[in-house]
């Protein structure tokens, strides 16, 4: 670098100094990291859409006069190493008061290790691993886990008169948690688990599992899987003539399930936090605006990100707006109570930082998801 | 334990076994002739089901027309596969190259490469999700015989296996093409010396084997309600195991071993858990190879 160049740079820097100090409009930033490339890129795009929409609406609303909230979005590529790098970058950026992300539990937890040290609050819209919020008091999530959903469905099935329940779940970490929390709740309610069947990922033929269940003669079947396995399971159950009603995890809430399984899906009971056809005005407004902005209805993950961003924005307001510090924002997040989101009313437990929500109960009737009480 | 549910479990197991058998027939035929594993057979199976599904969604013809479409797609896929992945490696006609392990492994890898490319292409074009199949085409109509439940697809798969196996035996034993195929399988050099057009015979083998694979894919896809790009992988592995257990070049042996695998999986699920099913199936493979190194139905060690 030549001498002139250096002088020029120094002058520019000096000239810019008073600018920041005297600016009337203060900028506060939220860091958001999610995969925008790689295998899970489609989810990162949904998150960016929703977060951008939430922040723009917030700035327009004038809830914090004189403060502009800025969204700093980084691509984590679904890679834990990238997540750590971004977490360091966000931690060094003093304008950032809270971070949101990442998509998967793995990346979220890797980044979480950094945030725990730099004391920056982190909220993930989707990380459901039990250990995520146990990293430090700086980790939050607004997605419910099986620890919450399992007992809820168990109570629902038990209150509908089911005593003997067979459980079928996919053989992975998540499936194990489905079985554990559900079975514990059924036993606590005085019910009986007749069979617990884990199936290998990639199984297409569920007939031997179904035959085994038929022998144990349960009142209902609880299914923990994704919608593709779920649709094959339901079709084969119908063909084998098993009459038991099926309760399922919220992961089966997909329009595609109705196409794939057809009439076999009828009478399936399940829960969800986000219902795209919800008659509630704030959900309808969100769905409509999302559709006009990005073309296409928002799915559950987009709604999760919208709520996550709004929860952080609320916390910034509660932490004093222009005077918000990282520590104050963390405390405000921990105090989140009855937040009216599009995925239901969310409250964070101040101690465990686990969310509780009101889950909507659904039943498939005549090829449609119908809200039931 | 040995009640009606056990009998139902045997039915389930046999129906799974017949699915593996359908796949194993074409697989073993191609192996028997070329003495190399065709890794792309699972993708031919997938192509057959997608071609059938496209016919269903665009024209909604009766089922036998859909099967004809899958047959045609399979023939085309088999021809192209041979052209791209196998023929380039037969340029070297001398005896040393014909017996060379390196050339054989190169073909093995080229078919693996084609299988990955085709699968990824299908994922890019159609998405990796399961395709929606119009309900009226699903072969899942329940048929109750006494206390046992069957599905319409199980009868079709059973019938198809019998027809394929019988038809193939007839073709191999009673037609000129069959005679040529057996000659090339037995000794390609010798077959060439007596004036058999080995190139044409190999193409014929690929076309026959692939049409069988494509129809199998379509029928199984409709029976399981699952058509997706990676659908050929699991049955492909099981068909390979059945082929090895059956003695590599014995088609009948592969079918019998496929049935053993299917029943073993279902019965294991019945007594333990589904996760143990695969373990038992592969344990059978290991035991077979230890006690019958040439497979249950394999001939002597005449191959190099």
Characteristics:
heterodimer; A: 373 residues; alpha/beta; Rossmann fold; seven-stranded mixed beta sheet; five-stranded parallel beta sheet; 12 helices; 15 strands; 46% helix; elongated; B: 304 residues; mainly alpha; two-stranded antiparallel sheet; 2 strands; globular
| Overall SS class of chain A | alpha/beta
- How many strands of chain A? 15
SS strand fraction of chain A: 15-25%
Count of β-strands of chain B: 2
* Approximate shape of chain A: elongated
Helix and strand sequence of chain A: HEHEHEHEEHEHEHEHEHEHHHEEEEE
**Mind summarizing the main beta sheet of chain B?**
2 strands, antiparallel
Order of helical and strand elements of chain B: HHHHHEEHHHHHHH
| Secondary-structure arrangement, i.e. CATH architecture of the largest domain in chain A | 3-Layer(aba) Sandwich
Helicity of chain B, as a percent range:
over 70%
How many helix segments of chain B?
A: 12
Major β-sheet profile of chain A = 7 strands, mixed
Shape assignment of chain B: globular
Number of domains of chain A: 2
Q: How far apart, in Å, are the first and last alpha carbons of chain B? A: 47 Å
Q: By helix and strand content of chain B, what is the structural category?
A: mainly alpha
**Separation of termini of chain A?**
72 Å
Low-confidence stretches of chain B: none
**In terms of quaternary structure, what is this?**
heterodimer
């Amino acid at each position: 670098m030549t001498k002139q160049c250096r002088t020029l740079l120094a002058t520019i820097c000096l000239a810019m100094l008073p600018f920041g100090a005297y600016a009337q409009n203060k900028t506060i930033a939220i860091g958001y990291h999610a995969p925008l490339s790689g295998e899970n890129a489609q989810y990162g795009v949904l998150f960016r859409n929703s977060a951008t929409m939430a922040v723009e609406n917030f700035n327009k609303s004038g809830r914090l006069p004189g403060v502009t909230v800025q969204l700093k979005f980084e691509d984590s590529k679904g890679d834990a190493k990238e997540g750590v790098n971004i977490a360091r970058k966000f931690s060094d950026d003093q304008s950032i008061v809270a971070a949101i992300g990442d998509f998967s539990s793995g990346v979220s937890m890797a980044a979480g290790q950094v945030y725990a040290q730099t004391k920056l609050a982190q909220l993930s819209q989707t990380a459901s691993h039990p250990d995520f919020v146990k990293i430090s008091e700086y980790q939050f999530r607004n997605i419910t886990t099986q620890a919450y959903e399992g007992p809820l469905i168990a109570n629902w099935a038990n209150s509908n008169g089911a005593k003997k329940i067979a459980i079928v779940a996919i053989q992975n970490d998540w499936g194990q948690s489905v079985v554990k929390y559900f079975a514990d709740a059924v036993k606590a309610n005085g019910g009986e688990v007749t069979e617990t069947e884990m199936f290998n990922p990639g199984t297409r033929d569920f007939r031997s599992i179904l035959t085994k269940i038929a022998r144990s003669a349960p009142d209902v079947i609880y299914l923990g899987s994704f919608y593709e396995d779920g649709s094959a399971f339901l079709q084969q159950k119908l063909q084998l003539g098993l009459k038991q009603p099926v309760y399922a995890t919220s992961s089966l809430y997909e329009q595609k399930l109705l196409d794939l399984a057809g009439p076999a899906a009828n009478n399936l009971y399940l829960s969800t936090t986000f219902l795209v056809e919800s008659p509630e005005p704030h959900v309808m407004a969100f769905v409509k605006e999302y559709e006009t902005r990005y073309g296409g209805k928002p799915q559950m993950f987009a709604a999760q990100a919208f709520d996550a961003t709004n929860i952080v924005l609320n916390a910034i307001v509660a932490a004093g707006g222009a005077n918000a510090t990282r520590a104050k924002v963390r405390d405000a997040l921990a105090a989140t109570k009855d937040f009216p989101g599009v995925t239901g009313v969310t409250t964070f437990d101040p101690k465990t930082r686990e969310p509780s929500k009101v889950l909507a109960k659904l039943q498939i009737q005549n090829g449609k998801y119908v809200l039931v009480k | 334990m040995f009640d009606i549910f056990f009998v139902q479990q045997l039915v389930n197991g046999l129906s799974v076994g017949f699915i593996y058998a359908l796949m194993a027939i074409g697989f073993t035929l191609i192996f028997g002739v070329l003495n190399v594993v065709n890794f792309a057979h699972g993708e031919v199976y997938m192509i057959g089901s997608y071609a059938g599904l496209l016919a269903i969604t665009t024209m909604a013809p009766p089922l036998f027309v859909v099967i004809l479409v899958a047959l045609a797609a399979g023939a085309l896929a088999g021809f192209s596969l041979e052209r791209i992945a196998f023929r380039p490696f037969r340029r070297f006609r001398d005896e040393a190259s014909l017996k060379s392990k390196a050339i054989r492994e190169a073909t093995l890898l080229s078919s693996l490469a084609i299988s990955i490319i085709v699968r990824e292409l299908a994922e890019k074009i159609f998405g990796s999700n399961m395709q929606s199949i119009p309900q009226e085409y699903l072969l899942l109509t329940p048929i109750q015989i006494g206390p046992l439940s069957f599905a319409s697809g199980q009868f079709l798969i059973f019938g198809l296996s019998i027809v394929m196996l019988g038809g193939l035996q007839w073709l191999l034993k009673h037609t000129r093409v069959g005679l040529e195929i057996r000659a090339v399988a037995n000794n390609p050099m010798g077959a060439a010396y007596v004036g058999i057009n080995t190139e044409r015979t190999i193409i014929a083998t690929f076309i026959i084997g692939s049409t069988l694979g494509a129809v199998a894919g379509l029928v199984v896809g409709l029976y399981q309600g699952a058509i997706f790009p990676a659908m050929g992988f699991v049955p492909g592995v099981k068909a390979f195991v059945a082929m090895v257990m059956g003695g590599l070049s014995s088609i009948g042996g592969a079918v019998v071993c496929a049935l053993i695998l299917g029943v073993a999986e279902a019965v294991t699920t019945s007594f333990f858990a589904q996760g143990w099913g695969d373990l038992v199936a592969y344990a059978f493979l290991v035991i077979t190879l230890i006690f019958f190194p040439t497979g249950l139905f394999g001939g002597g060690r005449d191959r190099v």
